[in-house]
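May I ask for a sample protein chain and its fold as tokens?
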Amino acid sequence: MAGAGAVERVNALGACWGRELDFATGQVWAAPGVWPLLAVLAAGADGPARAELAGALGVSAEQAPRLVRELLSRVREVPGCTAALGLWTADEVVVEPGWLDRLDASLWGRLTGDAAKDRAALDSWARERTGGLIERMPVEPSGALLVLASALTVRTAWAEPFRPGRFPVSEGPWAGREFAKLTVSGPELFDRIAVAGTSTGPVTEVRVAGDGEVDVHLVLGAEAAGPGTVVAAGFELLSGAARRTPVEGLPDGEAWPGLALESVDAPSPQGLGMLETVAFRVRAEHDLLARAGLFGLGAAAGPGSHFPGISRSAPLAVAQARQVAVAEFSAKGFEAGAVTAVVMTRGAVAAPRRFRARRATARFDRPFAFLAVHRPTGLVLVAGWVAEPAGA
């Protein structure tokens, strides 16, 4: 994949973004959908806008386009994942060839100036590039001189499907309610349950293995921990800032969020893991300009011409920058999609042998975080917060 540096930078942006979100409801966001757009904007910017964008990226504007190409190329090689860039320009915008060569756009189209026609074309691109997960482009094309967009999808089937059931909850925010329960268990899962002390306190992490290169990490914090800090703890685990402790090394009765550890009679001496959780579907829209400082878009959205490296025929400034993202976790697998866009305008018969074995049961029956991770590199493709189960 793009070198470890690119993964670190994209994950860092995703972690910072997560700390600033409102978690009153479920959340989902995709930093790999935003980082490439900021990078190609930086390549065509100058002055304060170039400096701000480079600061948000964590790399120089000169390095950014190469890292984008490597990042997108590797994401496209991940089974079940797609990534695309699209560019649309008005007739009056003459794009600088040098910038266009560095863009690696899968489509370059024209804006007609007819808002209905342009909306139909942009929506069609979003729908086709996400396999119908995203129906509409999250920006309005009216008055646009240039639209730059990215589309990202993540699909993985579980290596071992969950068993459906019912999930009565007696404590916590979901108390007194019953949901559809998803359960999976086995020796392999025992090795994928871990705990850690993080900057937000103790967390329990369960890695749900996909059948390709994408896993989904579920992270549960203490009841009093805030959503943003639990999400941040997930990023800390991936970066190594917080160290995991496998449950095998913990004594029976050890208290960790949502985790029960005990020694039981079993048909083999292997540890047994069990996860009980809920199905979920979350959708969110994000206005990147509402956090312009985080994304390095402050100067770029201000008055003046900030992108002579993109076009000298028209003074361009960022007028809209938005992302829409969805994620669904079911008994069979996980899928997510995100479309990000920037609009620029002017300015399991004989009696079995019995053994004693460890059993770890993780019960995610209150709000928790999730991170869909490319296993070989640690790139967080999509992250989010489950405030309500599906069908609640």
The first strand starts at residue 27 and ends at 29. Residues 4-20 form the longest helix (17 residues). The CA atoms of residues 267 and 350 lie 12 Å apart.
